[in-house]
Amino acid sequence: MQPSPESLERERVLALLQRHGWNATSFQTLESDFRYWFHGDDACVAYVDTGAAWVAAGAPLAPAERLADTARAFVEAAAAQGRRACFFGTEARFSRQYRCATLLIGEQPVWDPSRWADVLRSSRSLREQLRRARAKGVIARAVSPAELEDASGPLRQKVEGVIARWASSRPMALMGFLVQLEPFSFPRERRYFVAEAGGAVVGFLSAVPVYARRGLFLEDLLRDPAAPNGTAELLVDQAMRTAAAEGCAYVTLGLAPLAGPVASGLRAARRLGARLYDFRGLYAFKAKLRPGRWEPIDLAVPPGGHGLLAIHDVLAAFARGGLLRFGVATLLRGPAVVFELLGVLLVPWTALLALAPAARWFPSPAVKWAWVAFDVGLALAMLRLSRRPSPSLLLLLATLVTCDAALTLLQAVLFNAPRVRGALDAAIVAVAVAAPTVAALLLWSARLHAPARRARADGARGGRRVSPSRGAAASRTSP
Question: What subcellular locations does the record give (predicted)?
């Protein structure tokens, strides 16, 4: 069977990686989201086309002396196609050669694996996490690519189960660009590790090479939502020992996004986004592993570009081009912030109900005040649910809001529709019907995702919750 043109292209990129892959993100450019722009026989840029921009994954894959030339040519090629261009996840090596504006987007930790034993000796808390996992019967081991290549094999099936349970437990929809989950592509180039307890796989780590630095990037670090505490640390420990035995000089867990002295606007985004993504928790997890140093990671904006537009382009790349679609998908997963938002929105809505003239909008004053009382109770319950997850309360609220939507529609058809006097009245009735309908949809969707989140919470009991996910230079390790 002849290989496809896409496979041949990726084999060409792999050959360039093996010669010039210096960035931690370099191996990730083999994943399926990427297109490739070649500059001669010995240089390439991997990028995502958002429709408005070409967003490159790190610096070009090129000899060090050709980085700037390749970057300039890539920007010109993008402009010829009516696209902006930027480079996400670059390091100081690139910006020293290519004159461009840089925006710090976070920091990545780096270890010399030969000194991992010193890290363990210096950190009592880390040793305790390893002890706790082992006391629960967790064992971490390296596995050969051959054990995972067969998609129907028993170990591969168990790992796939961990991946599925991890993915369903995330408060945000899964993203693309540098954080898509493709741990089984080019398996012969990777290092694999599993954590097992009682015959079940409870954690998985896939490490990829950083060829030009004799290093490893611990790319995919996943634990089952119900895995014992210390499982992730045990996998990292096994990977560090393997890297040291193989003579690696460099190991990274990838970017801790928005860590370090980022700009004020990004600090505000870190605070506002904390309910969906635990930036501080991710940084704390990586920091407790005592890295030898932290390296700054930048967004590089070519001359003539604009930083805010570049940030928008990067977000579109992670959202696979559809920010609105990604936002809706995240809302349907039912993160706690959704319940809080519904509770907050009910406050002004209930006030408007209380002020509305009963004769015009309700069959009777008793009906009006019944709706007001119901919405007050609903708002309080939503706010409680946002702070203290409860499957039974979520089920009750989903049922009540569904009944609310049905009764509101019935009242709108039988009472309000015949009394509509114009466009404003029609809009008010439409909003009154749509609001509980949309809320019911969000609650039932959250109910579907609740079992995975509950398992994650159960797995965290008895200790500080740290649940790393993907250790990528674009934030694949997330609490």
Answer: Cell membrane
The ranges assigned to domains in the chain are 5-105, 107-296, 336-460
Measured N-to-C along each axis, helices 423-460 and 336-355 cross at an angle, to the nearest 10 degrees, of 150
Tell me the mean pLDDT in the region 140-156: 93
DSSP 77-127: HHHHTT-EEEEEEE-HHHHTTS--EEEEEEEEEEE-GGGHHHHHHH-HHHH
Sign of CA dihedral 388, 391, 396, 398: positive
Retrieve residue 330's tokens: 């995240």
pLDDT on residue 396: 93
d(C-alpha 82, C-alpha 371), whole Å: 54
Q: What is the pLDDT of residues 14-28, one digit of tens each?
A: 999 999 999 998 999
Q: How far apart are CA 201 and CA 197, in angstroms?
A: 6
User: Is 451 a residue whose pLDDT tops 60?
Assistant: no
User: Residue 428, class by beta-carbon neighbours within 10 Å (0-12 exposed, 13-18 middle, 19+ buried)?
Assistant: middle
Closest CA to 24 of 222, 290, 296, 291: 296
Q: Which is nearest to 99 in space by CA: 297, 302, 299?
A: 302
Residue 468 confidence (pLDDT): 44
Could you give the C-alpha distances from 181 to 59, 177, 395, in angstroms and in order? 21, 10, 31
Q: How far apart are CA 256 and CA 474, in angstroms?
A: 8
**Over residues 255-271, mean pLDDT:** 90
| Residue 366: partners with Cβ closer than 8 Å, 6 or more residues away | none
pTM attached to this predicted model: 0.78
Distance CA 435, CA 34 (A): 39
Topology of the domain comprising 107-296: Aminopeptidase (3.40.630)
175 vs 268, higher pLDDT: 268
Please, are residues 206 and 183 in contact by the beta-carbon 8 Å criterion? yes
**Sign of the alpha-carbon torsion through 74, 75, 79, 80:** negative
Task: Determine the 3-state secondary structure of 211 from DSSP.
Answer: helix
